[in-house]
Amino acid sequence: MVFWRGPAMVASVLSGLMLAACQSSAVNQISSIDTAQASSENISSLSSVISRNPQDPEAYNVRGSAYGRGGRYNEALKDFNTAIQLRPDYYQAYSNRALIQRSLGNQDAALADYNKAIQLNPSYDAAYIGRGNLYRRAGRTQDAFNDFQKAIQLDTTDPRAYHNRGLIYQLQGQHAYAIEDFSKAISLAPDAAEPYNGRGLSYLAMNDEDNAFTDFNMAIRLDDKIAESWANQALIYERRGDKAKAARAYSRAAQLDPNYKPATEGLARTRG
C-alpha cells in the first residue's frame, strides 16, 4: 500500500477538509422550519385558509414556512410578521422568522428573533439549535457549543444538535466525542449524507481509514450531489496511491462546486 510521502501533507489536507466541513451547512436550515407539512405545493390551499380566517396566526406561520422552503423569503418574512402581530407570544414564528432573516443576511435580526423565542419558551430546542448554528458561523464557538448542548439536554430528537456539536468537537480535535455525536445524528436521520462525511473525517483523523472510506461512500450513495463527499472519497484514494481514481473523484467534486478548494487543490495534485 502506497501512502503520501509524509504525515505533514496528510495533516494539512485533512485539516483543510475538516475546516471546509465545519464551514459548510450541516443540515438544510430552511427545511427545518418548525411546522407541519409545509411545502410550496400547498401554498394555494394555505392562502385559501387565510382568506377564510385572516386572524389565524398558525395559518400565516405555516404558509410562511412554505414560502421559505420555496426560496420566497420576502413573502415568508411578511407572513411571520403577521403571525407575530396576531400572537405576540408565538415563539415558533419568531424562530421561523429567524431562519428567514439568516437567509436574507440579516444576522442581527435573526439573533434577536432566536433570543425572543427562547425568552418566550426556554425549553424550545429548535431555537437553541438555530441560534447555535448562527453563533457557529460567526466564530462564537463556545456560545454555539452551549446552545447545542442545551438542546441535547432538553432531549431533542433533532439531528442538527448532535451533528453541529460534533463539528465543534471535530474542530477542537476531540474526535472520539465527534464520532459519538455524528453516530447519534445518523441514528436520528439515517438518510442524511452530512453526518457520514463528518464521522468519516474524524475516523480519518484517528487513522481509521477503512471506516472513513465506508462513511464517505455511504454519503455518496445517499446524495451524490455533494462536493464534499466526493472530495473525501478522493482523499482516501489519494492516500492509497490510486491517483487515477482520486483525480476522477476530485474532478466530480470540482464539477459540483468549482469553488470548493479541497476539490480543486486535490485535482491539481493528482491529475496527469
UniProtKB/TrEMBL annotation:
TPR repeat feature ranges: 57-90, 91-124, 125-158, 159-192, 193-226, 227-260
Pfam families the UniProt entry points to: TPR_1 (PF00515), TPR_11 (PF13414), TPR_2 (PF07719), TPR_8 (PF13181)
GO aspect biological process, one term: receptor-mediated virion attachment to host cell
Superkingdom as given in the UniProt entry: Bacteria
InterPro entries: TPR-like_helical_dom_sf, TPR_2, TPR_rpt, Ycf3
Alphabetically ordered keywords of this record: Repeat, Signal, TPR repeat
Signal peptide: 1-26
One Gene Ontology cellular component annotation held by this UniProt entry: cell outer membrane
Any coiled-coil regions, as ranges: none
Keyword Nucleotide-binding: no
UniProt protein name: Tetratricopeptide repeat protein
Native species: Pseudaminobacter salicylatoxidans
Lineage: Bacteria, Pseudomonadati, Pseudomonadota, Alphaproteobacteria, Hyphomicrobiales
